[in-house]
Amino acid sequence: MNQARLLAVATLISAAAMGCGADDGVVASDESNVIDGSRATAYPFAALIDAQLDIGVGRCSGSLIAPRLVLTAAHCTVDAESFQVVTPYNLDEAGEPGQAMASVAETYDWSAPFGTADPQMHDIALLVLDSSVHLERYPSVAADDGALGAMVRYVGRIDNGETSETDLFVGRAVQARPGEPWGWPFTFATDRYVEQGDSGGPVVLSTDGWVIAGVDSGGSDEHNLELFARADLVHGWIQEQIAAAAEPQ
Predict the structure, then answer these.
(1) How confident is the prediction along the chain (249 residues), in pLDDT tens digits per residue?
(2) What share of the chain is helix, strand, coil (3-state, %, to 5)?
């Protein structure tokens, strides 16, 4: 487990989107696209993440799972100095969305360089916010493999090719199956309806949108698959981080 400075891969404002290739045709998502999605207003924990990079601003998605922790993809935590998190559907009494800055992320075992993917690592990270963002209720992280064979939905910030500065979108329900047959043992696989990019957004159970099964990790054009890093495989570590970041009583 290690600590990383934040947030790298994504759609870039001042540079072209960067393809993150792997030898077997699986790529880390860089321009993600929820196809035919609808606004994710039922997901107040869903977060927009803008990262400050040397080459511009990168965009990812994530999930606020505790007052100071945002769950996202580990490959989104490489080579960035700081990032801003906004929860657009978590409004205060003045109608303003929750937001905070951060400059640190905790990763479980990720050490792959910028723009690459490693199937033998867990593509999971927790962004540590400088200040708390409060929800009436925080989502839970799956503790077992109950998502295998179940219907799940993805939440991300690009819909039909259009990147949003203010909204996130939820896609249709698709079935989750093991990623191991394609060489990615720490993932769920679904049919590809998230195009390249916008990594880090949550995949939630269709029957309970407040249970996060994993985060968007990448996709394979060759196999028409989307891969989601499984949160249940690092559930104990996530709970340890939540406890460590807990607000004083």
Answers:
(1) 433 323 333 332 222 222 232 333 333 333 344 556 789 999 999 999 988 878 888 889 999 999 999 999 998 888 888 989 999 999 988 899 999 999 888 999 999 887 788 899 999 999 999 999 999 999 999 999 999 999 999 999 887 777 889 999 998 899 999 999 999 999 999 987 654 557 899 999 999 999 999 999 988 777 888 999 999 999 999 999 999 998 765
(2) 10, 45, 45
How far apart (Å, rounded) are the C-alpha atoms in residues 171 and 40? Answer: 9
Distance, CA of 85 to CA of 46 (rounded, Å): 10
Instruction: Fold for 2-18+44-138+234-244, please state it.
Output: Thrombin, subunit H (2.40.10)
Domain chopping of the chain, boundaries: 2-18+44-138+234-244, 140-232
DSSP character for 246? P
CATH class of 140-232: mainly beta
Reduced to 3 states, what is the DSSP secondary structure of residue 65? strand
pTM of the predicted structure, to 2 decimals:
0.86
Residue pair 32/196 in contact (Cβ under 8 Å)? The answer is yes
What H or E segment, with its residue span, contains residue 242?
A: helix 235-244
Place of tokens 């994504």: 10
Domains 2-18+44-138+234-244 and 140-232 share a fold: yes
Pairing of strands 194-196, 32-34: antiparallel
Cα–Cα distances (Å) from 151 to 15, 174, 180, 204, 249, in that order, read 36, 5, 18, 9, 38
Q: How many CB atoms lie within 10 A of CB 15?
A: 13
